[in-house]
Amino acid sequence: MSQITKNPFKYSDTNKRYHTYDYYLRHSLGEKCAKVTLDAGLSCPNIDGTRGVGGCIYCSGGSASRNCEGLASIREQYELGRAQISAKWERVKSFIPYLQAHTNTHTSVENLKKILDEVSGLEGAVMVDIATRADCLENEKIDLLNKLSEKMPVTLELGLQSAHDKTAELINRCHSFSELEEAMSRIRERAPRVKIAIHIINGLPKETREMMLETAHSVAKLSPDIIKIHLLHVIEGTPLAKMYKRGEYEPLSKEEYVSIVCDQLEILPEEMVIERVTGDGDRKTLIAPLWSLKKTIVINEIDKELYRRGSYQGKNRK
Predict the structure, then answer these.
(1) Cα gap 158→275, rounded to integer Å
(2) Counting Cβ atoms within 10 Å, is residue 111 exposed (0-12), middle (13-18) or buried (19+)?
């Protein structure tokens, strides 16, 4: 009997024992889709002085698409990204414009409307995905997102990273857990159709395994629609890189990371979509951990560990 037929997890039609983003898209939109990452040319409040300066200690300047450098417009970025995806996967005909770089509601209401109008009108776009922070969501901006959600699906990604405020202070996050809770409450009240995704990072400085699991418990209580689980990467040119070189920070081993992610998956509700369980840093600038470059191997190890445990997402949910 195959792992698929023996799989006890109900939100899966493969060997995956967690609620994958691919499964979610296929069952909510009826087809396979692909994200196209975009840079709207915005900044962050903990970079430009609104809340702080310097950005998060691991940030090398924003998670912008590596394809969009030097391109003048969002449309140009989108068309290039769509062409590259289509060349790789011919059967993908639908796309999700993903405003990824920096904080994409950290702008005026007027400019945000202009950006949203443009991305929602891109050819082949079936959903809009917006990365932002809890402290950049005034009610007028949430109302714009609500109007857009009446026309097409919208996902709002909120970077939390850790539920522990002392960690947020250490990494120069410049907002608290309570601010995230408050923002989520207003989003649900004013824009109930908008899907909420939360980002967490494993391996942040001075965090123990227990603290990372506490973050998973806290996120589970918040009940976002989607979660992204990241590994902390040490990137050249960042304050974290200086800490690492001084011996003040030690990354997680692959074995530690896999075990922690599986523990977190067991805590998270089975209906919560797991969009990401790891990531790969830029080979040109990644300092550590180098094992993270083999993302497929890490994902496979997570699958194997859940199978070895006889476990699945939500098994230990209380």
Answers:
(1) 13
(2) middle
In the chain the domains, ranked by start, together with CATH numbers, are 3-309 (3.80.30.20)
170-205 pLDDT, tens per residue? 999 999 999 999 999 999 999 999 999 999 999 999
Predicted TM-score (pTM) of the model is 0.94
Six-digit token pair at 223? Answer: 């009940």
8-state DSSP, 125 = B
Rounded CA gap, 210 and 53, in Å? 30
User: Distance between CA 38 and CA 67 in Å, rounded?
Assistant: 9
For 70, the token pair is 């030097």
Q: What is the DSSP track for 249-297?
A: --PPPHHHHHHHHHHHHHHS-TTSEEEES-----TTTEEE-GGGG-HHH
Cα separation, 308 vs 318, in Å, equals 22
